[in-house]
Write a structure and sequence with these properties.
By secondary structure, the chain is mainly alpha-helical. The chain is built from eleven helices and no strands. Helix 2 runs antiparallel to helix 6. It is globular.
């Protein structure tokens, strides 16, 4: 067991909660991209069977394993064809933010359920439910913030790209391949401790504290 634990980011007893959370988080994230793109006229995801809530269609085996091992990973990106959009920039922005927003909404629901059950006295001594809800909230808040970072290939970069003037946008597209490499270097090296971690240590706790205070005021 100690040998297996040495390769994992999370304690072994938490893996079931993490796996279930990832199935929910990644599936709804990618489905949100697909459904918004479809609503704006792009049938690409639907034709490829991605307009579904089936986790097996959206989970990327390597990305899921890496998240368990290294703490970061990815799902299978939903294909989007901007040629179908009447207003490509607006539709592109809404499609991009749909994924992270879905993770934020999952976290909000998690908070509501947690405080609702706590107020009803159901959570008392129910450590399994508590741990699952905590994991659900934590991972989805991380995915929400992480995906909004302005680095390719994350959703935040896509939003920034659509907001940029044409001449800047073209330059960004040319540098995108190198940007992805730079981002990977930042994530897997200590550089991330100075660039990404400070964001997580300030933004995520602030969101969590805000949501906790809000639902606490409602239920207690």
């Amino acid at each position: 067991m100690d040998t297996i634990q040495s390769f994992l980011k999370y304690p072994l007893e938490e893996i079931p909660y993490v796996v279930i959370t990832l199935m929910i988080a990644f599936t709804l994230h990618e489905y949100a991209h697909a459904i918004v793109a479809y609503k704006f006229g792009d049938p690409t995801a639907k034709k490829q069977g991605r307009l579904t809530l089936n986790p097996a269609v959206h989970l990327d085996p390597l990305g899921t394993i890496l998240l368990l091992i290294a703490g970061f990973g990815w799902a299978r990106p939903v294909p989007v064809n901007r040629m179908y959009f009447k207003r490509p920039r607006l539709a592109g922005i809404l499609v991009s933010i749909a994924g992270p927003i879905s993770n934020l909404l999952i976290a909000v629901v998690g908070f509501a359920v947690f405080y609702g059950l706590a107020a009803a006295g159901v959570l008392q001594d129910n450590e399994y439910v508590i741990k699952f809800l905590q994991t659900l909230i934590e991972i989805n808040l991380v995915l929400f913030v992480f995906n909004l970072l302005p680095f390719p290939p994350l959703d935040g970069y896509r939003v920034l790209e659509d907001l940029a003037p044409d001449h800047i946008r073209h330059s960004m597209m040319k540098l995108e391949m190198y940007g992805s490499l730079i981002f990977l270097v930042i994530v897997i090296t200590p550089i991330g401790d100075y660039i990404i971690n400070p964001i997580f240590y300030t933004v995520i706790p602030a969101i969590a504290n805000g949501l906790g205070s809000f639902f606490s005021s409602i239920f207690f």
